[in-house]
What does this fold into?
Amino acid sequence: MKNKLWGGRFEKDTDPLVEEFTKSIDYDKKLAAFDIFGSMVHVKILEKSNHLTKVEANSLIRELVTIFDSVGNNTFKADENCEDIHTNIQNILEEKLGETALKLHMARSRNDQVVFATKVYCKVSMEELINKINSLLLSIDNLIKGNNIIIPGFTHMQHAQPVYLKDYLGAYQDMLSRDIDRLKYISGNLKITMGAGALAGTPISASQYRVKVEEMLKEYPKFAELAKAFHIEPTKNSLDSVSDRDFVIEIISALSIIAMHLSRLSEDLIIWSTKEFDFIEIDESFCTGSSLMPQKKNPDVLELIRGYAGRLYGNLVSVLTMMKGLPLTYNRDMQLDKEPLFNSFEIVSKELVVLAGLIKTLKFNTKPIEKALEDESLYATDLVYYLVNKGEPFKKAHTVIGELIKYTINNNTQIKEIPEDVLREKFSSKIIKEEIVNLLKPRKSVESKESIDR
It folds into this structure.
């Protein structure tokens, strides 16, 4: 393994098995840009605190910008022989600048370096995710805009009452809007700190770590996107700063809730696309076929979104389990928070994009929907309210209409086919057939509900 950020105390080389087992560069290379960003800020702090001359600081920043550019244009190649991405970047600086680069780790530890880069990654990734959720919300909004379709609503997967399609899909819009609020709340509470060192702080004054990043790096506009979202504070408790992974757990939890919402929406669309329902048509470009059965048109995208929710839950449990027994402060176990975090962001990000695209293709099949709305049991509650308005106690009205529905099932008939005298004699003298038949209409049913604050 190439040069490490440690080693003076050791006489023996690290066993290659240990090097291979402990390295993290194959996944933490994702933090390259954020680590460079942190190094830029750290260089400025070292310069302000007279630990670097202006010439040394400028040379370090120049090389850091060069590496940052290579990350941005995808020409940066992580050295898989390095222990981690932080070591990789440090080695590049040492090759270019020699002893000047050795000064960069003054008042700095990988313990605080890693958590800084991870927090900035999370800040940026949450903002990107919010934008993708908004795109999905727009796709749903365009689908229901001007659409006055009514569909059967369900409880326990049984016909319940008619509802507007816009309200059905609007429920998912509300869920996703809460997801955005949740991410914003987490991001707002995520404090970016410096100065923790390995665990006990550094000799540099806390005031030097109170940084307005945009102002500090205003001469480097390429860092503006990273810098605009936050400012840096001195650590309030250095032990907590290097050992806290609450933010990782909280973020994966929020991502798991998003995945759950997307899974539920996908399940509804899967059900609606079946031959038994036939409420929607998914465009062929978002479906797959069968290697054996030529007739198949499978909603694999939706099934995978449903399946990936389990992966998100597993990621959350893995980090919770990893953290539960760790004494203060940093322990190498905490290296294992990165893969679940990165994986969760990647999965949800891809799901949001592909689901927004799929929803744009959806077409509703009005004839099967209208056929489903002919089920008179959907209007049973409306008939209960009808009898209540006629003076019947609710419980009695509920029983009467329950008996009426049971009668239609046992006699293979419909309410509108039952003679009025039978309705009045067998069920309630308050029933006027013309009135209750008029209630067996989907639009009449949804328009009668006045409690919703639209």
